[in-house]
Amino acid sequence: MAKKAPAQAPLIDVSIPTMLRTRLPDGRLLGVDGSVWLIRRVPLEPVVDAKSVDERMNVFTPLLAAYDELSAMTPVGVTRRAMARKDYRQTQLLMVNLNRLFNPTGHQLAGFLKRSFPAQVTEKRMLFLAVKLASKVGGAGGLKAAIESVTETLTVGGSPLSDYDVDLKKVDAALARCGLTTPTSEELSIANSWWNRGHFPDTVDLPHSDHLHVFSDAKAVRMADDAGRTNCHEWPEIPNHRTLTFATLEDFEFDFIPPTDPNAHWATGLLDDEAVAISIRGSIEPAKITRAELRRQRKRYMDDIRERVEQHKMERAEQDEMLQTLEDVEGVYGSNGGSPTLVDASVLVAFDGEVEDITQAGGNSQANLRIMNFRQRQALAEMMLCSHIRANPNLHDLPSQTVACSGIQSLSTVGDKTGALLGFTERDRQPAYVSPTAASTADGLPIFLNVGGTGSGKSQVLLWKAVQYAEMGGPQVIIDPKTGSDHSPTVLAAGGQVSSLDDLANSDGVFDPIRFSLRPEVGVEMAASMLSAIDPWGGNAARYEVAVYNALSYGVANGAQCVGQALHLAHNAGKATADLVNPVFELADSSPMFRACVGMNPKTKGLRIHDGITYIKVGDSHLDLPEPGAISQATLMQRVCLALVRMMVFGSAMALTGRGGAIHLDEAWVFLGAGKSEVERLGRLARSQNVLPELYTQRVSDALKAELTGYISRGLILPIEDATEARAACQLFKLDPTPERMARITAKAEIGDGESVAMNWNSMKALRDPNDPERRVMRGAVGIYADLAGRAVPVEIVLPKNFLALSSTSPEDIKRREAEATARELERRQEAALAVI
Questions:
Q1: Residue 627 and residue 670: Cα distance in Å, rounded?
Q2: How far apart are CA 290 and CA 469, in angstroms?
Q3: Secondary-structure percent of the chain, ordered helix, strand, coil, rounded to 5
């Protein structure tokens, strides 16, 4: 009779669930071994997406400074490492990166955004620096405190917390000077249980040779037990279970290179490969001690090289290379006072899932990793906060800049703290918000410029912003000067109102500057400027410039409510000649568009702005605008149309006064081409009235020619195929037009020979599957968002499906909407016919 196999012990072998015994509100951590640590959060900023090398180095500064500060606390009376290392500061740098569903808690549009993006995943990334504190018997309490400290140590065990007060104050002040901050309770909980996605640390785990299984509840444990522990590849899907792979940093594929070299940023590749956590432990050695060690080792090193050459064990080229390496090492520690060293540094990396080929991890990273075979559980224990376990066989002496400039603090984030959601950063999936009031609150220039070529997605960005701004309670005005353009479905679906220029043109003085200006003198100045720009006097505008200003001033001072009435009053009182007023009246009688800017009837109402979205479109009428760059040669009617567009802008801005709204101007070259003075006027008006001007254009060069760079606070660069305009966009937002950046901005969405077509993932255009009959969007358009803080980061414009269906301007989507509208109308008629029967 065969023997029955002995039953396996239940899978309840819990490794040490945490090395942290307790934590205090000030950031002190008490380890299970009696150690006391101080933990601080390191600020995160874009590294790969930094605008320049200088800005990238600024990101590294806090951590570099922290290592320098901690190094300065070590006495260097003795410069021998063997004798001095007992005083070295022990540190742990811990990066935690978790994937989470987008949850904009506390945001004004939290419910709206959660409904719009129910499955959107974002990354929660944090970087912590933990420093082991040194105790001093009695702390700062004198002899009595010292006696009490010794007594407590003998009776209870471990040093009293008061023994760490002196060192706590010193380390806390040093890290605060470097810009490090105290983590919140939630952040510390995540750091202490990152392997369980930040929920709680006491999990059951099952180590396999090259990966580790973590179970969050008893049901998951039972399912793994029932399926058999050995062959996890045959397990069913187990909820509340995850697999982690731990790897060690074996070496680097670089020697001593400057921190400005992209190859020095070895951690960024690991972050791109979605490393769950990176732990870097090490004791900080002052540069003076490292230099002394190098000098002592130099003679032995040189003798070894010479001996190997004499024994023909080394070629001349190899000798030169080793000598150069020695010089590079000494140069690192000999220039500018040198850098501290992390001696016996242990670098461990955790990845999500079972990593089959660790050599592929990290992408372009210069770090060579090796899986911690048969040490997976021990690797997790070493990566825990306050851990006294050391499992890594690969220890290094790393210059502090190798760690601080690794890019471990990289997080591509951009935008304001709240506002409309523009999209998510392409690299790290961080929400990118645009606040309609941030620029005005910061007393900066409020103009937001959106630039992009045809088909780049400008109109969709415009509508998506307007819908969200309106949801936040700010009235919106959209001015669309393109003949035949119609965004009515989106606006009406959002509860807005639509007005066509066909109707507005018949309204007497609806955009009359005297009528919509808050102060009479402003209205007079704007009206005089408008009439001079239109020049109804046949090229004699300069001759009548002063006279028309005086006539308007007189009319307004005597109660005039619009331009035509003011000129009538002035003429009747002998303050204006017939040759001044008659051309104005004649043009008002013959041109409805001019009449929209020049009111004749004082009882006509001015522009009324809806509390939601007011969409003003040209409709089927022809707005005869001059070609970009040819405004100075414009005909009379073209000048009238230009004036109408400008008055629509200023009239709308006036109507939004004090309401926290925004005005969206499509085809903004019309306005930008008017010159510096017009933008200055809009900037002054918008800032004082708390109005956000959003301009949309593909003619960036016009903004540069008009010297408007200093009047635009932020913007969005969408795909632009025209290389000249793409370069101008980079110049406008102070971006270096590198070949890589230019290639992305100008690249087409598809590559191929016509028969075989594939999506071009390097392109910033929206990507649609060329093999899908429905041409589904695989990735939204990407725009480089330049924010108020000076950052410029690529952001994927992610739009909800229901919004995309209404707003898309692609021919396929327009035909689909027209077909759906026709079907709905047919259905309505059929229902009406049946009702009659």
A1: 9
A2: 58
A3: 40, 20, 40
pTM of the model: 0.85
Single out the residue of 181, 226, 174, 223 nearest to residue 27, CA to CA. Answer: 181
Q: Quote the longest CA-to-CA distance of the chain.
A: 128
80: its two tokens:
């021998």
CA separation (Å) from 520 to 439, 556, 566? 27, 7, 12
Cα separation of 492 and 477, whole Å?
A: 13
The two three-digit tokens of residue 405, written as one number: 């400039």
Question: Angle at the Cα of 305 (from 300 to 306), degrees rounded to 5?
Answer: 95
Could you read off the pLDDT of 209-265 as tens digits, one per residue?
999 999 999 999 999 999 998 899 999 999 999 999 999 999 988 777 888 888 899
- The whole-number average pLDDT for the span 344-355 is 96
pLDDT by residue (tens digit) across 372-402? 999 999 999 999 999 999 999 999 999 999 9
**In 234-374, at which residue ranges do the beta strands (DSSP E only) sit?**
241-252, 275-285, 341-352, 367-371
Listed in sequence order, the residues at least 6 apart from 657 whose beta carbon sits closer than 8 Å to its beta carbon are 518, 689, 690, 691
| Token pair 């989507």 in the structure block, residue | 813
Nearest by Cα to 796 from 463, 453, 425:
425
H/E element, 715? strand 712-717
For 123, the enclosing helix (H) or strand (E) is strand 121-132
The single residue listed with the structure tokens 């070629």 is 315
Question: Exposed (0-12), middle (13-18) or buried (19+): which is 818, by Cβ within 10 Å?
Answer: exposed
Within 10 Å of residue 43's Cβ, how many Cβ atoms?
15
DSSP 163: G
Q: With a cut of 70, say whether residue 332 has pLDDT above it.
A: no
CB 552 within 8 A of CB 567: yes
What are the residues facing 445 on neighbouring strands? Answer: none
